[in-house]
Amino acid sequence: MSTDTTSPSVPARSPSSVRAGTGDPVPPADAPPPPAAGAAVVLDLRDVAFVRNGRTILEHVDLTVRAGEHWALVGPNGAGKSTILSLCGARDHPTRGEVDVLGSTLGRVDVQALHSMIGHVNPRHPLRTPLTIQEVVLTGITGTTEWRQRWEPTRAEVDRARALVTDMGLGGKEHEPWTTLSQGERGRTIIARALVADPALLLLDEPSTGLDVAAREQLLATIDAVRVTHPEVASVLVTHHLEELPTSTSHALLLAPGRVSAAGRADEVLTTEAVSRCFAHPVHVERRHGRWRASAGPGTA
Ligand SMILES: Nc1ncnc2c1ncn2[C@@H]1O[C@H](COP(=O)(O)OP(=O)(O)OP(=O)(O)O)[C@@H](O)[C@H]1O
């Protein structure tokens, strides 16, 4: 599926309308950058609140993601990152405010149809049966964890799955069972699975979880490569660790518990001051060779 860059149902919003924070006037440094000319709005969260069991988990959250942008959601444990991701993936509805996903407003759309346009990379993919790598990738077409009974892929779908397996560096292993794959191989398999239905939006929930340093670096390189080969796809990646951000990260949203503390271009948001404020702890942030690093100690704000 390709993104409809002319969709009239998704009016472009002025960057100044995107608030970062709790309703206070927007400081210029926190405002998202001007959109890329003509890029479609893929995700639009407007003044979103999310309440569960009487507890406010998110409040006054605004986020606009355009085609080709690669957002990182960064924040401390329990800040609400996964909750935002579940709204972006049309898996939950906001308690207040509005969420547009791929041009449709949640609550007024069949979410099943949206799910098929969203690739979800969950390193805790709950598959238990020994499907092969190729079969796991093909379950991205049915949107199921297990193989759907009586479903047969077309030749074109099988070819596409094979091509993605090769792109992910798993060529020749397509018939190996999921149950014996390393965490790194699983990570690359679920990225291929997320891409097989040609999504307009890719959601990555802590994709480096459980990987050793070599597997993590391979996975981040894979994500960078996907962003080159699929330039129109927007992505949102959740992490606690700046070291786990791919170099291709273009934007970032810092989430302090329940609220946005900063949002915009990654280089303007991932700073010592802003990250320290978000984590309520002094953290020194630096960027080298395109990658970010956070540390405490000398030089910390
Ligand atoms: N269904 C629910 N009912 C009540 N509280 C919930 C529910 N779902 C999540 N929460 C709480 O909401 C808060 C935000 O959770 P969320 O998983 O979105 O945070 P997170 O930033 O992704 O956390 P982590 O980094 O630890 O994964 C947490 O305190 C969590 O316990």
Automatic annotation (TrEMBL):
The keyword Hydrolase applies. SMART domains: AAA (SM00382). InterPro entries: AAA+_ATPase (IPR003593), ABC_transporter-like_ATP-bd (IPR003439), Metal_Ion_Import_ABC (IPR050153), P-loop_NTPase (IPR027417). Residues 1-35 are annotated as: Disordered. It is an enzyme of class 3 (hydrolase). Its EC number is 3.6.3.-. Residues 43-282 form the ABC transporter domain. Keywords: ATP-binding, Hydrolase, Nucleotide-binding, Transport. Residues 7-24 have a biased composition (Low complexity). Residues 25-35 have a biased composition (Pro residues). The keyword Flavoprotein does not apply. Belongs to the ABC transporter superfamily. PANTHER family: METAL TRANSPORT SYSTEM ATP-BINDING PROTEIN TM_0124-RELATED. This is ABC transporter ATP-binding protein YlmA. The gene is ylmA_2.
